[in-house]
Amino acid sequence: MVLAKRISMRTFVLAFLALSPLYYVSAADDQPLAAKARQVLRRHCVECHSGQDDDDGFNVLNAAAMRSSDEGYVIAQDPEESLVYLRIIDEDMPPAANRELQPVTEEEREILRQWIAGGATDFPQADRSDFVSIESIYSAALGYLRNAAREDRPQLRFFTLHNVYNRRSTDPSDLRFYRAGLSKVLNSLTWERRITLPDAVEVDGVNDDILYVIDLKEFGWDRQRNANWNELQKAYPYGLSFEFSQHHGEAHENDLAVQGLTQTQIPVLRADWFVATATRPPLYHKLLQIPTDARSLEARLEVSIASDFLNPKPRRIARAGFARSGISGQNRLVQRSDALHGFYWKSYDFKPDTGRAKLTRFPLGPANLFEDRRHPFERFAFEHDGGEVIFSLPNGMQAYMLVDGEDQRIDVGPITVVSDARRTSGTPEIVNGLSCIACHRHGMIKFKDSIRLGNATFGEVEQHVERLYPEREAMDELLQEDQQRFMQALRRCISTYFNDEDDLQSFDEPVRKVAVWHRSVYLDLNTVLTELDLKEETQLLRVGDNTLKRLGLESLMKGGVISRPEWEALDSKFGPSLMQQIATELGATPVLPL
């Protein structure tokens, strides 16, 4: 009976989509249907199904492979028998957590249905006649520096997207997310008061903006002899010198000139790497100068939770507790405080087996709130296992910190306490910075308190609970105020990279999107070529089969893939990353700043 109902509902949905003119994709549309289908699959499926080594062994961006598979992923001209389509229609995929934040629209379903019904044609590939060389990037950077004021040059740095632009799998519309992600991350890693956008630098022969420049002074990164940029250089797995390169010899002269004018070894970084990596520890903590414990951060932000707890006022401290949250299976408490630059939110999270974790019984924790005195409500104080801190930066953007039960900073939230079903970090682990940015794409997330009117306390204790846990209207006002502050800053930060008619509320969060595209998608031969700034496969073959085999890249020539972490990992014994090692075989020299 259940199966019959499921089939009946599927039949109804398929019939509705087939007949509904509202979601019809016109053949006269200037974008090919196959390109639209690819965008749908890239938006909803690629982070889990991007190569032969993923969980289910297929790549949704390879139409030919899906058609030829014995698994029936795509049956040309028969969407009702195509597994990819049916899993979406049946709402088996994407996973529930993904669907909740990023639903597959009926229009997107209809695009897939029409594409499969029309034969599931191959996805269009970008034209590589406009391949942008690394020589062009250094030439453009050098031209910009020569026109800049002499005193500004040592603080100018560049971010390039040419490697993404050159990739055949890159859709032109993807570039806006890389640009927005770059701007958002830069403005989320500064204590300066203004939102500052990176400036586009014109590259000869390229109509798109793929090279950007920043002034370190505008982000406060010029302090301590440009310490932040130096940290980025030390972690950079793509640093190369082209002095002896057989393919990029012309880049060497410009590279040396750019280094000289900027007075740094690596003046140009890849924007995709920066967005995906600077938002993770240890770089995230170093660049934003996040201290090693929450109490030090609170002192810097003029937040005094202990004293405000004793004399609660809604603007100084306000709490809400609820049974469910998006990242935890246990009840959760969130607490808002006024802070130097706006707000300071702190959550209290629990393991499943923590004895004093039930907030209805123990709403007045944490038990370790007071360092120098006994807790005045010790019998009613919860004991927590960790939490998330969210605080506003001077420019209105948000920053994050994860802590354990003793307020010590941690890189990753314990999986027994919190987890990320969307796997933003590449695993279910919640990684400070990146995972938090992805989750809080519109700022603070709405919630409804259940503790004020649903706790197990009486008398004086209950009165104190009511003072700490305000009425819903008062908390909603604070929440909305904080959301608006963040959204105003976010608009200034990223709206210029999207069309005016696009609604900021409906955007996919750009940092998460870039991080997933960069870190979770497997690299095939074409991608590796663009990573090495090579246009033709024959250029890579010149290193020889034995070299490719020794470096573990032989499978690429047979349709294989490698993971991004494998490609980028700096070798603890030999130093250079795998990318730098293969580039060495092509005549380049790894740059490994000390």
UniProtKB/TrEMBL annotation:
Keyword Signal tagged = yes
Annotated signal sequence range? 1-27
**Top-level division of the source organism's lineage:** Bacteria
GO molecular-function annotation terms? Answer: electron transfer activity; heme binding
Any idea where the Cytochrome C Planctomycete-type domain is? 45-96
A Pfam family of the record is PSCyt1
Q: Which residues cross the membrane?
A: none
Q: Which UniProt keywords apply?
A: Signal
What protein name does the entry list?
Planctomycete cytochrome C
Q: Which organism is it from?
A: Stieleria neptunia
